[in-house]
Amino acid sequence: MPLVSFEPPACDLRLLKTKNVPLRRTGHENDDLWKHLGCFLPRIPQVAYLRECRSRACRDGLCGAVPREARALVHAGVGRWPRKLLDECGGLNVTLVSIESAAFYRSRRCPAVRATRDVAVPYPTHFRAADEAELARHVERVRAARRPRLATHVAGLHRHGRSSGFRRLVHEQCVRDSRCDSIVHEGRLNLTDATILDAYESSEFCLQPEGDTATRQAWFDAMLSGCVPVFFADCADFSRPLLFEHLYAPFLPPYFSRVGYGPGPWAVVLNASRVHVEPDYLVSSLAAVPPERRTAMRDTILAFLPGLQYAEAKMPNDAAALYRNLIS
C-alpha cells in the first residue's frame, strides 16, 4: 500500500503500524492486519502509513514522507525505530497509530504508563456491520444468545516465546474441566471465522492469555460476541490501571478503580501466579461470578460495542469515526 505523503511541517506526522514487535512466525497474518487497517481507517490527509517490516525498501519508502532531520532516526532502529522516532525527533510533532501502544513493553502484565503520542486502535475483527440496522440486530442477537459454556479459550499453542508456557497451562487447565472448552487455533486454515465467533457467542467468558504480544485480536472478537474477556495479571499493585484498562481508550472505557483480582465493569482479571500453582483456581473463580454480575458486564460491553468494529459503511460511532475524532 503506498504512503500518503505530505509536505512537512504543514501538519503532524502520524505513523500507522500494526504490531510493536516483529512476528517471525506469523508475518503473513501481520501483513493482513496491515492491509485491513489501511482500508478501515479514514483516509485523512497527511497520515503516513507504513508496513511492519524491517526491510530497507520499507524504511526508504517511509523516509520519503518524513522530514529530513528525522530520517536518520528511522534508519537507526531495527524493530524499535518507531519508539526511537517518537522519543528523539526533536520538535517534530509525531503520533504513532498502532493496534498496540509501544509504551507497555517495559511491563507486560503490570500497570504501564501510556505515552502521550501513542494512539492504539482496535484490531480489525471478523464482524463488520453494513449499517446501523444490522448493528442493532447484532447487539440484540448477542444479548439474547444462549451461553451453555462457562468459558472458552481459542488460541494457538506457541512452542516458543515468553507467553508459550502460560498459554499452554491455560489450555491444559481448561480441557480438564467440562465447563471450559479450549480450541487450538494453529494457522489460518484450520478454523473458520464462523467457528471462532460461534464459540465465543456460546460462552460466558473468553480466556485471553497474551500471545506474541500482550494484546490479541481475540479481545475484540470476543467482546463483539458478547463474551466477557478474562485477563491475567501477576502484580499486587492496583494503584495504577492495568494495560487493558486504559490502552484502547476511548474505544474501550478506561477503568481506574480496581482494588484486586476478580470481575470489573466489563472484564475479569485473574491472578496469573495462582493459575500456576492452583489447578482449579481459573475455572472455579469464573464459576463463582454471580449470573447477575455476568449480565451486567455483558450489558456494559454491548453499550460500547459499536466502537469496537470498523463498519462496512460510514457510521457515526464505529472505530473509524472514533479514530477520526481522536486525532483531529
TrEMBL record:
Residues 113-234 form the Exostosin GT47 domain. This is Exostosin GT47 domain-containing protein. Belongs to the glycosyltransferase 47 family. One of its GO terms (molecular function) is glycosyltransferase activity. It comes from the Eukaryota.
